[in-house]
Task: structure prediction
Amino acid sequence: MPLLFMGFILPLYFEIAGLQLSGYRIVLLVFFFSAIVRWLDGSGKYYAPDFLVLGYALWAALAIFYHHALWRWEYIGISFIETISPYFIARWMIRDEHAFRAFVRWIFIAVLLMLPFSVYQFVADKSLILEWFGKIGSVYNVVQEEPRLGFYRAQGSMPHPILFGVFCSVAFSLVWYVLGYGRGFTYKVSRAGCVLLAVFVSLSSGAWLAVAVQMALMTWKTVFAFLQRKWNLLLYIFAGMYIFVEIFANRPPVQIFAAYLTIKKSTAFNRIRIFTFSSDDILNNPIFGIGFNEWSRPRWMVGSVDNFWLVAALRYGLPSLIFIVAAIVMIYVILGRAQLSSKLQSYRLGYLFSLSGFCVAAITVHVWDATLCLLMFLMGAGLWMADAKEESEQPQAEAKQRRTRRIRYTRFGPEGT
Result:
């Protein structure tokens, strides 16, 4: 995990035979087969999300091959590795609460290491970390965009401020509920505040949305702690609101969502247009999508699609979207049914809140590179909790059994005779 998370925030990369290799990609390649073997041996059990993630990766590779044959072999290979390897590395490495806590600690360390450089870029519009590493080798380009709120967008050591902000947002509720478990309010606020500052300086509405979702879920959990089925109630409320808007609003819920959850109105209108035009391509190419071919849009529109889920359906077809969404839904179902101690319940809340924030933010942004790998790692990092109760009780039972079987001797013979 230290190698992987330090690789995530290392901006250096180099090319070999057309492949762009960075720190985290080297780690994923080195540990790919080990992670797959450890999953196949059944020691960590099998869960539905495992096969759904495999289905997503294989269908995406098949879709690209269908459209471009082997002309995009390097993308097929590296995208498969970036999907499968982080997920199964997490399934292999994180099988108890100690490993899970180590994962949270390392993502928090990664955020802290990028924070001072990001704050400086936020104020001075200069990326020191990219400038320094640029003297050693190839690094990501500094993104030049117009200021927002009178400040400059920080990108940390990542290719874009959006990726930096969403990457950091994952740590917010994890730090609060995992590292902060059993700690005082000041400890939690100070740690979560560092994450919040890192997200803020990215000036990315998608990253802010991820944290806002986590905060809203944390507030709901606190306010309605007396309700036994508070999460079912929340789902019913959202479903009712969606149906109400669908019936009575003068525009689709997706357009309303995009309009009110962005910093700039122009960004909101652009996302609405993207959804409108790309949806036509998805419906016309539902099985394998359109690959890397141009999607239908007016000439004056840029080619980027600011929606991770939309990109999956547009590029690889609806089956790929179904695979990845079903995998995430099954994670909620499996962990929601797990019977856990109070400590692990706190860990589960932090994990699911973090995953929820990421999934909602992905509606407004597209994620790639290290941030996409973090999503796949996050998906695989929590399934150990499905059987955590049995695992945590087993050592206690064995210890008790050893105590009952132990025979103590004295000078007069065995004790108790």
